[in-house]
Amino acid sequence: xxxxxxxxxxxxxxxxxxxxxxxxxxxxxxxxxxxxxxxxxxxxxxxxxxxxxxxxxxxxxxxxxxxxxxxxxxxxxxxxxxxxxxxxxxxxxxxxxxxxxxxxxxxxxxxxxxxxxxxxxxxxxxxxxxxxxxxxxxxxxxxxxxxxxxxxxxxxxxxxxxxxxxxxxxxxxxxxxxxxxxxxxxxxxxxxxxxxxxxxxxxxxxxxxxxxxxxxxxxxxxxxxxxxxxxxxxxxxxxxxxxxxxxxxxxxxxxxxxxxxxxxxxxxxxxxxxxxxxxxxxxxxxxxxxxxxxxxxxxxxxxxxxxxxxxxxxxxxxxxxxxxxxxxxxxxxxxxxxxxxxxxxxxxxxxxxxxxxxxxxxxxxxxxxxxxxxxxxxxxxxxxxxxxxxxxxxxxxxxxxxxxxxxxxxxxxxxxxxxxxxxxxxxxxxxxxxxxxxxxxxxxxxxxxxxxxxxxxxxxxxxxxxxxxxxxxxxxxxxxxxxxxxxxxxxxxxxxxxxxxxxxxxxxxxxxxxxxxxxxxxxxxxxxxxxxxxxxxxxxxxxxxxxxxxxxxxxxxxxxxxxxxxxxxxxxxxxxxxxxxxxxxxxxxxxxxxxx
Amino acid sequence: xxxxxxxxxxxxxxxxxxxxxxxxxxxxxxxxxxxxxxxxxxxxxxxxxxxxxxxxxxxxxxxxxxxxxxxxxxxxxxxxxxxxxxxxxxxxxxxxxxxxxxxxxxxxxxxxxxxxxxxxxxxxxxxxxxxxxxxxxxxxxxxxxxxxxxxxxxxxxxxxxxxxxxxxxxxxxxxxxxxxxxxxxxxxxxxxxxxxxxxxxxxxxxxxxxxxxxxxxxxxxxxxxxxxxxxxxxxxxxxxxxxxxxxxxxxxxxxxxxxxxxxxxxxxxxxxxxxxxxxxxxxxxxxxxxxxxxxxxxxxxxxxxxxxxxxxxxxxxxxxxxxxxxxxxxxxxxxxxxxxxxxxxxxxxxx
Lengths: 596, 351
Ligand SMILES: Cc1cc2nc3c(=O)[nH]c(=O)nc-3n(C[C@H](O)[C@H](O)[C@H](O)COP(=O)(O)OP(=O)(O)OC[C@H]3O[C@@H](n4cnc5c(N)ncnc54)[C@H](O)[C@@H]3O)c2cc1C
Ligand SMILES: Cc1ncc(C[n+]2csc(CCOP(=O)(O)OP(=O)(O)O)c2C)c(N)n1
Ligand code: SF4
Ligand code: SF4
Ligand code: SF4
Ligand SMILES: [Mg+2]
Known about the structure:
The complex is a heterodimer. By secondary structure, chain A is α/β, with parallel strands linked by helices. Chain A has a five-stranded parallel sheet with strand order 3-2-1-4-16, covered by helices on one side. In chain A, β11 (308-321) and β12 (327-331) form a beta hairpin. The longest helix of chain A has 19 residues, at 398-416. Chain B is of the alpha/beta class. Chain B has one domain (23-330): Thiamin diphosphate (ThDP)-binding fold, Pyr/PP domains (Rossmann fold, 3-Layer(aba) Sandwich). In chain B, the strands form three sheets. In chain B, strands 2-1-3-4-8-7-13-9 form an eight-stranded mixed sheet, sandwiched between helices. Chain B has a three-stranded antiparallel sheet with strand order 10-12-11. In chain B, strands 5-6 form a two-stranded antiparallel ribbon. Chain B is globular. Chain B starts with 37 loop residues before the first helix and ends with a helix. The interface between A and B is medium-sized, with 34 and 33 residues. The site of one iron/sulfur cluster has 12 residues of chain B, from loops.
């Protein structure tokens, strides 16, 4: 079943589940090994290259890598990839000498970034060292976007934002703060070589229900309220608070409310608890702070006495699924429930808004009033205008904003060099043997049985008393080491050389996970069913050889391989080798301009 | 050789047998043999056979002598009984153990040096006595453990790595076992688990002396060109007389094979093996024909593998000796030490 064209760069990248799942393709196992070795600054820099904000992301990332992590399929829980990133940021020494120097060379190209969120800052970080003159505009006095204005300080201390935003501006990026761009057509008249729009999804969705207008003084839009908290305009809240909505914004609202005087704070969601948008760990953190989450309740009416809110009336619903598995919420028939409260925070979604971009200037908008943006190049329909972050495809998260920023920077760099941005160079790669001796490898191939460690927290009594006090203490170096040792080193790949194989079965016999089979060739589906252990996870590739001496092939299911290297230790001829894979993704600069 | 303990993690969808055990519950400690040694594949085949037969490991006794092959019982069935005897003495220890407790399954694991040189006499007598056991010789044609001298099974003319040629005649353990009255005789190859696992299963189910000569390349000293026990040589000269499907169901399964190509053999416990004949029209029930057949094929350089001989109504040592069926460890003092009066009676009977 050898595929027509075996593409090693993609094939082996995909085996590194975490890196493949990371929108910015951070080389996770590499930095985890460096953390285990106590080389925190090196680990930090590897992150910084890929994701620009290791300290910020190490506390706040949505972590698409963790559900993808192979460890989660081998044992109960994935490696704590995200919180290990924070370890690199916490324990590194001064990394300023390792940062690229301000570019002496100027290439004469001027790039504007509108909005100073993570997307724009990534574009600026990628382009400034290449000699671009990058100017970042933001309506706010400080850069960081929603990372600064929305994410509560008890999750992300201000100093961390200052530090990492600072590294970007240290590269010679100009920041025009307090500058709201009011007209795109006027802005474009300034003859920018490229314009990047990273203005986010700034508008909180409201909830229309009787009493909303009358009790308006006691009902706040979550994201506006959080911004007011971040700026210090809001410093307290009533004792009884209801938060409506089930996303991460709702979790930040309720936890902030608990810290500003809310004693009886509840989250109420329409859907079931399981289907809530908030990440499981955010829900856990909220509940740990004494916040109940009530589900299957739809707000029906804001009750008030002369404009003073008394509570919210909810209709009770249950989930029903149609033949296609689509869910609808139908009344359960139980009586409505009235919950008393003094204030409500509405966190039911975020929207984009581009009142400042005139229609008809070449930037097309679709029927949902979203700009038409190319998924790969981030280009709009106006060739030198690019979008990224939440402004491109609606609200996502920081790491996606960073990934968009990288992609847009590549497009801009190619365009400014007269190359077609829609042509993307293929990634390069290297594979390097890790063999040091007969059974010695340059990585630690012993498999730790340690279960996932929990990040220690500040005790509730203290945490709830100070909205600026970071609630997570982070791993100390000992825990960081133990957690790092859980990583299976998925980038150290099992590489098979057919012509060396004598079919002695030694690898099959030793493999603890029954990954390897020698069998007759066949189409993939059939092969999957015939392996020593069923290869049911079709998301995971089969690594197959050409025909061997006996006419059989070697087929390895990548799914639960521990990368323990025992197959290679047992192979008498070196037909198996453990080789470290490194993908070289094209980034703005020479690597994206080569035509290879 | 590996220094790491084998990780405890196992495939999340790993199957279990009727006892709720996975094949990994049949492992022993990690092997210290050379990487790629055929003996490790035999260990693996034994583990799979026991797993598939749903055998509780603690009902098995594994016995061995000295040699790389004789070290292997440490690397499988960690929860079974084990006895590592002196060189070549496994058959006697096994016989003694079997006399004392006939309820265990006896697995004798030996090498060609252990069985065809120093232990040749022991091998012969355990077979001719009809001890109920599975006797596996991991046959690599050399003394692996002592760095690769020719053993007594090395073919005349075979070459050592550095060029020394064997001038002595080889002992064919299969021919010996046939002649000595083994009731189950097979030959297989460590590189062909598809053949080896069902053979081991059938041998375990067989009640009587079951002998398996398993060619097992020594990758360190006897896997070069000029060797007749190398992976390449055995693969090129392998002449399988049949292929085995081991069927645990208690009724023969009708299969899609043409009747002349199939032979269904019933074992003592009611299980069946299906033999698919390959090549020659070979009858596993004819001891003399079997001896002839292997001699002629081997004279023309072929290595005959498969189930070579099977006695349908085997007898075992206990039948001959009329021993007590209860294991000695379950008999009380009264039965074991019947006293002076009983001894006097026996002595009187011998006068
Ligand atoms: C409460 C809350 C909590 C969140 N928590 C997390 C989290 O824990 N982890 C995570 O990954 N993501 C989180 N997010 C999402 C994350 O903040 C965003 O996805 C991310 O910041 C988007 O980055 P961006 O670069 O697209 O723009 P933004 O961060 O939205 O920044 C846009 C910037 O553009 C400026 N701007 C807008 N219009 C103009 C204009 N016309 N002129 C000049 N400037 C303008 C704004 O002032 C703003 O500073 C959270 C979001 C919210 C609301
Ligand atoms: C009484 C005695 N004589 C000699 C030896 C030395 N010796 C150890 S192993 C061995 C030969 C083993 O050969 P084989 O049974 O074929 O095992 P292999 O290592 O080839 O698997 C010999 C002669 C010994 N241990 N004890
Ligand atoms: S085990 Fe390590 S390398 Fe593998 S997916 Fe998880 S974090 Fe990545
Ligand atoms: S590295 Fe080799 S032995 Fe280890 S789990 Fe993967 S395939 Fe099996
Ligand atoms: S010396 Fe030969 S028989 Fe002994 S372990 Fe090594 S390969 Fe196996
Ligand atoms: Mg030997």
